[in-house]
Structures are given as C-alpha cells and as structure tokens.
Design goal:
heterodimer; A: about 375 residues; mainly alpha; 2 strands; disordered C terminus; B: about 525 residues; alpha/beta; Rossmann fold; 3 domains; 7-stranded mixed sheet; 6-stranded mixed sheet; 21 strands; about 35% helix; globular
C-alpha cells in the first residue's frame, strides 16, 4: 500500500478557495509546536500574536499602515507573476520610489503647497516604474534572468539610500544622525481619522489599486493579454500579443505600485528618509501575492494577514521576549504551506495497491 | 507460414483495464501475439492503442488484467524490464538527442553500453542485415525523419528483441521510405520475430499484417485477418459507423488572387530550424492548395512567416487579399481577412486553462474588435459567450458545460472549435496546418468538408498536411515542401502518389514528373 498523487481531471474549485485557510491553519499548528519547544504556552503566545493586535482601535490603524504597502506591492506583483515575469525586486523599487518621491521635500524644503504631495507621489511612481524597467530591459534585450537582476538591484537601491541619508541628503540640523530633514507639513500624507489612530491614505491607495487591477485583469483585453502571455507565450504570439511589451508592462506596473508604496510609507508613517525604511515589505509582498492566489481582491485579505504577523511579532517581542526573527519564521512557514497545499488543487491523494511507475497522464 | 495453427502466444494480454481521470482508456482488452507474425493494432486516434502498448512496454501499469509472456504471467514494471524480456519499442515521437551522433544516441539507450567502437560496428552490421542504411557517426540533427526512425529501429534491434512494437511508424515517412520499412519488417518476420504494428492506415495493414486487433473507445471490437477484409469493412469496424465520403466538385469558379507569396526567404533561427528558400505561391479565390511534405521540412517556419507571428524583411513577400502584409503583425493580417489555424492545438491555437469563449477572443480580438470589445478594451463577455455557443453548435463540438476550459475537450473537439472560430468569420484567406492530426475520422471528415465549402464560397485556402490521402481528397492542387523549398503546385488531376512521394523525398520537379 502506498499514497499516490493522482492528477484531477479538473482543478478543484473548492480547494482553490480553501487552501489558503488550510495553509494558515497548518502555520498556526507548526507555530504552536515551535512555541511549545521554547517552553511557552502555545495558546497564550498565539493569542498575543494573532488576536491581541485586533482588539484595539489604534492597533487596527497600525494594521492598516502595515497592510497598505503589502497590498500595493502584492497587487502589482500579481500582474507580474500571472504574466510569467518573476519580479523579486519590489523591495528595491519600493526604496527607489521613496527616494525619488522624497527628492522634492528634501532638496526644496521651502516648496510647500497643494502641489507638493501629488508631485511627490508622481515622482515616487515614476521612480519605481523606471527602476523596474531595468530588469525588464535586460530580459527583453539580453535574455537575462529577471529573478537575478531584479533581486540584485534591491541591494543597489538599499545602498543608494544608505549613501544618500549618510551623505548628500543628511539633515544639516540633524546632529549627524543618518537621516534626512523632516518633511514639511505639505509633504506629509494625511491621516484618515487622526483622532483614533495613525492610519493614512496609503490604505486607500491600496484598495483603489486592488480594485482597479482586479477590473483590468477580469474585464479588459489587457488583462486577457496578461493571462494568455503568462499561460502560454506561443499562444500569446498567435493572438498577436507582444511578449516583450508585456515584460515592460508587468514590470512597469508593479514597479510603479511599489514606488507608490515606498513614497507613501515615508510621506506617511515616518516623515523622513532613514537608512532602512522597510521591514522587507517587498519580499513579504511575494508571499501576499501567492497567499491571495494572485487575485487582487484575495491579496487585500492576504495583505491584512501578513500585516498581522508583523504586528504580532512586535507584540510577542514586547510581551513575551520572543526574538523578532519569529516574524520571518511565520512568514516563511505560511508561504511554504500555501505552495504545498496548492498541490491539492491539481492532484488528489489516493491510496493505491501496486507501484505506479512513471507518468500516469499519458495520452490514450 | 501457418499462423492459424495453435501455438503458445509470445505475448498475451487478458482483460486489461486502464483508467485515467475522466476516461476509460482500456476496458477488458485482450490480445494475443504469436511468434513470427506481424500483428496490427488498428483504431482511430483516441481508441486506446497507445495506452495499451505503453502497458506492454512497462511505461504504464494496468489497473486490472493479466499479461503473459511465452505462457507465464509477468508483471512489467518498467521499460527496462520490458527490454529484458525481449520487447523493443519505437515510439511515434522519437526520443533522440539532436546534438549527438547516431551511435551516441544508441549507446545512451542500451542498458549496459559497450565501447563506442563496438556499437558503431554492431550498428553497421544490423543496419546492413535488415536493409536500414545508417551512418552511425552522423549527427542526428542533420538527419531526415526517415533516417531518425532507422536509428530508433536499429537501437531496438541491437537488444535482440523477440517482439518489436512500432507506433504509427509510417506517419512521418514518404511513401517510398514506407516501402523500404515494409521490406525490413518482412525480413524481421522471416527471422521469426514478432511485430506489433500500430496504425490507422488500412492499405499497409492489409498488405503486410497477418492478423489484426481493432480497438474502438478502449474496447476490442474485432479480431480478424486483414487480408480477408475490405478497407471499407475495416474502416467501419474502427469507426463504428459507415463514413460519408467528403464531397468535392472539381469544376468551380475561380476569382482573383487572394493569397500570394513572393520569393519568401527566411534564415534558420536555430541550428535545428529549417531555412525557407525562395518560396513563391499564388492561390485564387475558390481554390484549395495543399502543401505536402514530411514533418520538419519548413512547414512550421512557413506557417509562422505567413501568419505574421514572424515578420518578413520585405513587405511584398506576403500579400493577403491584395495588400502587402509582410511587415504587418498577425493581428493586422487577420484584419485584412486572413485566418490561421496552427498545428499545435494546446499552447498555440488555444490556451488550455482558459475557457472556450476566452479562446475565441484569442484569435478574434483584432479582426472583430468592434464586436467583442468596448471602450478601453472592455471585454463584451455576453457577446463572446453567444458567439462561442454558435461555433459549438455549428461544428457540433462535444464539451461539458456551457463554457468549459479548452484543455478539458478531447483533441478532435477542440480542433473543431478552433477551426469553427475561424470559419465563423468567413475569412477570405485561410491557412491551416495539419487540421486533422489526432482527430477522429468523423470529425476529420467534417473539418475537410468545411474547408471545401469555405473555398467554394470564394475564399482561398492553403492546407499544410502530411496526410496524402487528405490532400488528394480535398485539394485542387498540391505543392511539396522539402528542406525549406516549395515545388510548383501540381493540379489534382495530374498528381500521383508516386510523384508527390518523390518530391517529398527531395527529388526535383523535372525528375519526379
């Protein structure tokens, strides 16, 4: 007797809805084991981690602040991944968007009027978009692997930011701290309900982007093009779609959204540039995109879940003295279980008697 | 030679059953192959022939049933075990490395390969013995399909098999190459070896095979001596009903030139692609011109160039409906009134994971922009669905549900849909590549009839096919593609199987005629 994976005739619709929940459940289970092994009560720890951040208004605002960049980036990445373009460098595009968007309030602090913030957001979008076009250009021109180039450009962007805030952009009145000057008030992204918490317009941008990209993917020829080119490049060529233009479209769009997330982050939560402006949003958004099934509406939900792991990690660090590395462990497990349980959509587990050699899918 | 005498069968399969998700590929199949006979396994595409032989060769395992080898029960768990028993197999799609030599390819397939020089020597001996001329040091990428098949056969014979399984061996050969293969097979039979010969071509089965087992929809529907049957009786056994022949009146109106290729040249993009050399062709409204040729002689490259998937260096190399189209992409060419049906259905003509209505949009978004797309490229889903239903009904496409994913349809039904989505437009020019490959006989007849009707209604049709019977049935004239060159079209009335066959093998026009 042995277990065998048998390919389903049709992918299971029920499971494609439920596997993210199964994966989340398995992550909680594995997390409990990890906590128990550290001598902590798993139930108390999980409560601190996943429930406590949800019961107070101010921490819900914090959740929105953390979820906004994850959703914005994740939505853009879904277009990339659906079209078979593996942009792993959203973190870098986030950083570059933050830098280009911040140029205005850092270099011209006296330029403070109604146009400041819209211009900053525009520069952020353009910066992220342009930075993402580098791996796109390398891929279409020289057939370079975009996974490697986009990933390596993350480090370039991070070092560029580091150099700027320690060098030319350092706050002249900042006692030599590696920070830019504090943005003027016209350059700050307003809070939504400031009497209750810090949540700003970033979460609105995220929701608008999610709905917009969802409509684009579901209802328009461009979205159809994304699906066709991603599923089968040859059929895409037969349809008359250019695969190299699609590379630029996907990278450009996801870079633009990552850039918007970057400038919204510095113009909102922090109000200045520092050497490190992201706790890995660009990488975590990859998990968000997959947990949300590459569906922008699913990504909204997934972004909230992953934002919770950040908040829970902070809470557990403060209340229980757990290492902040636990956040990464949770995020990693979540991605692992999502990808693993996805197998169940296409295959079913069967107990078989004999040995099954080779491919059980041969043609008749 | 008395094959009716009771003898212990070399191989006996009893009550074999094999199920795939959604299909019962083999149901209670029984088959006995005697020593020293050529046994035909007949059946349409999808009848379960390949599944059965894959189980014989150990690639697949039966769900139920018994296999006996020389009278004793055997369980063949892998191709290696099959080879050990003495079963050799030549697959329909070869498994050769193009960048390696023939001898290296042979060495790779042997379970315990001897020295290279020994292989060269043994391969040469076997190839001489059975009339399979072969240069063991030639690079596979440089060889013709017929020569590649010989490598496959020689490497099987080196294992001294008592049963040789050949899956559709003549489907890739010119008539002359097929003739030589038959001589080899007869020599093997005279040697006392058995051959299981899979085919759907009745003439060759009748002239060569001692017995035949006929499969239909996974079940054995007859076992007979093919020489005592007529082609019609075998065909109706295979198909299950009498087929209506395709109707084609040879006298018809011809209009202006709608399809024109002028001195089309295209360099090879990879070492294994074929360069197109100075191809010219004119097709008038009302005509169907066939392009014959063995696979891999430039047909795919020609299709890509004419369809506009690849652009030409000069705009007038391809003229469609009176307009220079060489610099236009496939969408523009469609908008001019041309339609294209590629050879590969899944992943080229259709995306398996998308629904039929989405696959309709795939090839129609450029030509029917106003009908299916609103402002800002908004897809008019209801209209797509309605059109997709109309195509499904017009071509009698069998599918589950109102708008299933393309990948869930059988090959023949998907092909009917793909052809139907183009015919629905009444294109003025239609280029189709291998439209009935892997399609059951009923659907194939339907498709051929539809092509004739399109042409007779005033369109120009170009049909690329390796199936000579199909070309003779449908076309008004036939040109032959060989090594990237295209012969003059020969009118149907003057063409013979022999002339076309010689041209397919590379003879020049003068010597073939």
């Amino acid at each position: 007797m042995q277990l065998a994976l048998v390919r389903r005739q049709y992918p299971s619709r029920v499971l494609s809805v439920f596997t993210p929940f199964i994966a989340f459940g398995l992550t909680l289970l594995a997390g409990s084991i990890m906590f128990a092994a550290q001598g902590l009560d798993p139930l108390v720890t999980l409560y601190t981690y996943f429930v406590e951040p949800l019961i107070e208004t101010w921490s819900l605002h914090e959740l929105a602040i953390k979820a906004a960049p994850l959703i914005l980036i994740g939505v853009g990445l879904s277009v990339c991944f659906l079209s078979n373009n593996w942009n792993i460098g959203a973190e870098g595009q986030f950083v570059v968007g933050a830098i280009t968007g911040s140029a205005l309030p850092v270099l011209w602090p006296d330029f403070a009027n109604f146009a400041t913030l819209p211009l900053m957001l525009l520069f952020g979008v353009l910066g992220g978009c342009a930075y993402a076009c580098i791996p796109a250009l390398l891929k279409t021109r020289f057939n370079t692997n975009e996974i490697l180039t986009s990933l390596m450009l993350v480090y370039v962007a991070q070092l560029l930011l580091d150099w700027l805030v320690r060098g030319p952009w350092r706050n002249p009145e900042g006692f030599n701290f590696p920070e830019t000057r504090i943005f003027n008030d016209a350059a700050i992204l307003p809070e939504l309900f400031s009497e209750y918490g810090r949540a700003n317009w970033g979460i609105v941008f995220a929701l608008v982007a999610a709905i917009g990209v969802w409509l684009m993917l579901r209802k328009t020829l461009k979205g159809f093009e994304v699906q066709v080119v991603g599923a089968s490049p040859r059929a895409g060529r037969f349809a008359g779609f250019s695969s190299s233009r699609m590379v630029f479209f996907a990278f450009g769009l996801s870079g633009a959204l990552a850039g918007l997330a970057g400038i919204a982050e510095v113009a909102g939560a922090s109000g200045q540039l520092r050497p490190v402006i992201s706790p890995g949003y660009g990488f975590t958004a990859i998990i968000v995109a997959f947990l949300g099934r590459l569906n922008p509406l699913g990504i909204v939900a997934a972004g909230l879940v992953l934002a919770l792991t950040y908040l829970g990690g902070e809470a557990a660090q403060i209340a229980l003295g757990l290492s902040d590395k636990v956040v990464r462990v949770f995020q990693g497990m979540l991605l692992f279980f999502v990808l693993a349980t996805d197998t169940l959509i296409h295959y079913q587990v069967r107990v078989t008697g004999g040995t099954t050699a080779g491919d059980s899918r041969g043609d008749r | 030679m008395s094959h009716v005498q009771p003898r212990v069968p070399l191989l006996e399969m009893q009550g074999i059953r094999k199920e795939f998700p959604g299909t019962l590929a083999n149901d209670d199949v029984s088959l006995a192959i005697l020593p020293g006979e050529i046994h035909a396994l007949l059946g349409e595409n999808g009848a379960g022939k390949s599944t059965l032989v894959k189980m014989i060769y150990g690639v697949l395992q039966p769900d139920a049933g018994e296999m006996r080898w020389q009278g004793s029960p055997e369980h063949v768990a892998s191709p290696r075990e099959a080879r050990h028993l003495g079963i050799g197999m030549v697959f329909q799609h070869f498994s050769l490395f193009e960048a390696l030599s023939a001898a290296e390819n042979i060495a790779l397939s042997l379970d315990d390969a001897p020295e290279a020089s020994t292989i060269v020597e043994r391969a040469s001996r076997v190839s001489q013995e059975y009339g399979l001329p072969l240069d063991p040091l030639a690079m596979v990428g440089d060889l013709s399909v017929g020569e590649r098949q010989r490598i496959e056969i020689v490497r099987c014979l080196l294992q001294e098999p008592s049963l040789l399984v050949l899956d559709e061996p003549t489907s890739v050969l010119t008539p002359q190459e097929a003739e030589r293969l038959f001589e080899t097979l007869e020599k093997l039979r005279a040697d006392g070896r058995s051959i299981l010969y899979i085919s759907h071509r009745l003439e060759e089965v009748q002239r060569m095979c001692d017995r035949a087992t006929v499969l239909r929809q996974g079940r054995v529907v007859g076992a007979c001596d093919p020489r005592e049957e007529t082609a019609a009786s075998l065909a109706s056994m295979m198909v299950g009903k009498d087929l209506k022949p395709v109707e084609r009146e040879s006298v018809h109106d011809r209009g202006e030139v709608l399809f024109e290729i002028r001195h089309l040249n295209r360099p090879a993009e990879t070492p294994f692609a074929v360069a197109l050399r100075d191809i010219s062709l004119q097709v008038n409204a009302g005509d169907i011109i066939g392009i014959a040729g063995v696979a891999g002689n430039g047909q795919s490259e020609f299709f890509e160039a004419v369809s506009g998937e690849v652009l030409q260096s000069e705009p007038d190399m391809v003229r469609l409906c009176g307009t220079d189209a060489g610099a236009l992409g496939i969408g523009h060419r469609r908008a001019l009134g041309a339609a294209f049906v590629p050879e590969e259905r899944l992943g080229h003509g259709a995306v398996p994971s998308l629904s039929l209505s989405q696959n309709l949009l795939l090839s129609r978004h450029a030509s029917d922009h106003a009908e299916f797309l609103g402002t800002a490229g908004w897809v008019q889903r209801a209209r797509l669905m309605a059109k997709s239903r109309a195509v499904i009904e017009a071509l009698d496409v069998r599918c589950g549900g109102p708008d299933p994913a393309a990948g869930t349809l059988s090959g023949g039904n998907l092909q009917k849909f793909i052809i139907g989505r183009e015919l629905d437009r009444q294109p003025r020019v239609l280029l189709v590549n291998q439209p009935t490959w892997g399609v059951d006989a009923g659907a194939a007849a339907h498709i051929r009839q539809a092509l004739i009707e399109l042409a007779r209604n005033g369109s120009a049709v170009v049909l690329i096919s390796q199936d000579l019977d199909e070309l003779f049935e449908v076309c008004d004239a036939m040109a032959v593609m060989h090594d990237g060159e295209l012969s003059e079209p020969i009118p149907r009335e003057q063409a013979t199987l022999e002339t076309i066959g010689l041209l397919m093998g590379g003879a020049s026009m003068g010597s073939a005629a």
